[in-house]
Design a protein that fits this description.
The structure holds 2 protein chains of 2 kinds. Chain A is α/β, with parallel strands linked by helices. Helices cover 37% and strands 23% of the residues of chain A. In chain A, strand 7, helix 7 and strand 8 form a beta-alpha-beta unit. In chain B, a hairpin with a 2-residue loop joins strand 9 and strand 10. In chain B, helix 3 crosses helix 4 (108-121) and helix 3 (93-103) packs parallel to helix 5. The mean pLDDT of chain B is 93. Classes of the chains: A alpha/beta, B alpha/beta. Chains A and B meet through helix 6, helix 7, helix 10 and helix 11 of A and helix 5, helix 6, helix 10 and helix 11 of B.
Chain lengths: 278, 272
């Protein structure tokens, strides 16, 4: 049963004469971990804005085709209705933090769901713990570093316990170890709670091991999709996409006549395949 | 030359930089790396006088930043912020990118030539008349880069230049800054993007908790597991792959893709 389904989805921003996304068809099942990637300006952010009706409710323009999210017609629903079940972590964390303390920001969502005080408190503690920001409880968001703001934004969304989480380059300001920890926490949520994860990311080396499917967009359309290993082997079509260096290494070797099997996605896979040759 | 001597700096009571000493010679290429909150951005904001030392001093081309204004330093030191939305304000991309040159009093002809060149280089030509705020995150970042690189400053500081950039754009950006560097410009990048750093092959200054943890060539630092862990980095993929095959005599100092390919092919030739 798909949680998100798009049919022939096209959107043009008001004031622009070229569609930002066009004729998009796909479906995403419950519990899937999807990575959306592609050259900058290809329509990734525009596409996910349709998932909670930010398009067309907030960003005006012309929309056609169909987008269903959790059996609701998303383009005809309110963002406030969808927000309960579709959590967003935006590219720029400053755009979603506004309170005078991190704790208040994280509590804002659950309070608006009308949850009891105890439940709200529990969720705030849980979310801040997963995001690794317990010690920033009393800090004002504007005093945080870019990386800390990203963690706070992630905690705000987790506290809502949505069915779908959309993350738009959620770890771009974080150091590699913190990025890894956050991504592990997100992947755990998927495994334990069955949450659906949609992640926009350029750094495929960081996210490939979690992805069920990689969706590559180009010029407003889905150019390629499939499991990482099959997508990464079609090098010719991967213009502008930075596949992991271990995958690239195998593609280069293959070109020179050294075929070590299916293109690996992780370092471990690559290591095993090389080891077999010796 | 940028010289940092015994630099201490605190925001309110929170100490961010603790006795940093650093010498950056003209024409060097440096990557400043380290965990979130290590003080990287705070350090580079001292290089154009946006922040002034609490203790110690920062000399840019021999002159203490305490005795200069940001406006005068910025003629020689261009700084691109981490978050492009902190620096963009104009109606169109062209206006945004031409702003600094106009302030420096260049002729319209020079400005137009230079701006068009930089827009072309950073793949922004088709957006010259567009509002920066209509662009995607990655494109806004490139506009911010263009607006500083356009005036060809002597020392270039880029805070997280690769955020939101796809592989292709990163490659172009790298080629451009390597070219500026080879023309004698000092390039200082602050970044977490270790694969980008491996491709640039610079001197790496590793900051941790407000102090310099290590300073040296990228490959000796990145193959040192202890340093990598202390600075919350993750080793480059190829280096990790090589390390995992250490018993077969692969060297973790190899982190460049093409070098790894050559080494592997040499060994495979004897086996297959």
């Amino acid at each position: 049963m798909p949680v998100i389904e798009a049919k022939n989805l096209t959107f043009t921003y008001a004031g622009s004469n070229k569609p930002a996304i066009k004729n998009i068809d796909f479906s995403i099942d419950r519990g899937e971990f999807i990575v959306i990637t592609g050259p900058s300006g290809c329509g990734k952010t525009t596409l996910v804005r349709c998932f909670n009706s930010l398009i067309p409710s907030f960003y005006r323009g012309e929309i056609s085709g169909k987008i269903d999210v959790l059996n609701l017609n998303a383009s005809k629903s309110n963002t406030s209705t969808l927000a309960k079940n579709v959590g967003f972590v935006f590219q720029n964390p400053e755009n979603q933090l506004f309170s005078l303390s991190v704790e208040r920001d994280v509590a804002f969502g659950p309070e608006n769901l009308g949850l009891k005080r105890d439940e709200t408190r529990q969720r705030v503690d849980w979310a801040m713990n997963i995001a690794g920001i317990e010690d920033l409880r009393e800090t004002a968001p504007y005093e945080l570093s870019g990386g800390q703001q990203q963690r706070a934004a992630i905690a705000c969304v987790l506290a809502m316990k949505p069915e779908i989480i959309v993350l738009d380059e959620p770890t771009s300001f974080l150091d590699p170890l913190s990025s890894y920890q956050i991504l592990e926490a997100i992947a755990d949520l998927r495994d334990e709670v069955g949450i659906t994860i949609i992640l926009i990311e350029h750094r495929l080396d960081l996210v490939s091991k979690y992805a069920d499917r990689i969706m590559i967009m180009d010029d407003g359309q889905i150019a390629m999709e499939g499991p990482p290993s099959s997508v990464y082997s079609e090098e010719a079509k991967l213009l502008g996409v930075g596949i992991p260096k271990v995958s690239m290494l195998f593609n280069l070797l293959k070109k020179d006549g050294y075929n070590l099997g299916e293109t690996p996605v992780t370092i471990e896979e690559a290591s095993q395949k090389i080891r077999k040759c010796f | 030359m940028i010289e940092v001597k015994g630099l201490h700096f605190s925001y309110d009571r929170k100490e961010v930089l603790n006795n940093v000493d650093l010498k950056i010679h003209d024409g060097e290429f440096i990557a400043v790396m380290g965990e979130n909150g290590a003080g990287k951005t705070t350090l580079v904001k001292h290089f154009n006088g946006l922040l002034k030392p609490d203790k110690g001093e920062v000399l840019v081309d021999g002159k203490s930043t305490k005795d200069s204004t940001v406006a005068s330093i910025s003629r020689n030191v261009g700084l691109v912020f981490q978050n492009p939305d902190h620096q963009l304000f104009s109606e169109t991309v062209f206006q945004e990118v031409s702003f600094s040159m106009r302030n420096f009093g260049y002729s319209e002809e020079t400005i137009t030539k230079r701006v068009n060149f930089i827009l072309e280089t950073l793949d922004l030509s088709s957006y010259a008349d567009t509002s920066p705020f209509m662009l995607s995150g990655g494109e806004r970042k490139r506009v911010a880069l263009a607006s500083v690189l356009v005036s060809d400053p002597k020392h270039i500081i880029l805070d997280e230049p690769t955020i939101g950039q796809d592989y292709h754009q990163k490659d172009k950006l790298r080629n451009f800054i390597v070219q500026m560097n080879s023309q004698g410009r000092t390039v200082i990048i602050v970044t977490h993007d270790i694969e980008f750093v491996v491709d640039c092959k610079p001197r790496v200054v590793l900051l941790s908790k407000g102090s310099v943890l290590a300073d040296g060539c990228y490959d000796s630092i990145f193959s040192n597991k202890d340093l990598i862990d202390k600075a919350s980095l993750m080793s480059p993929q190829i280096s990790l792959l090589m390390a995992s095959l250490g018993d077969l005599n692969f060297d973790p100092k190899i982190m460049d893709l093409y070098q790894a390919k050559t080494v592997l092919e040499g060994k495979l030739k004897n086996c297959l």
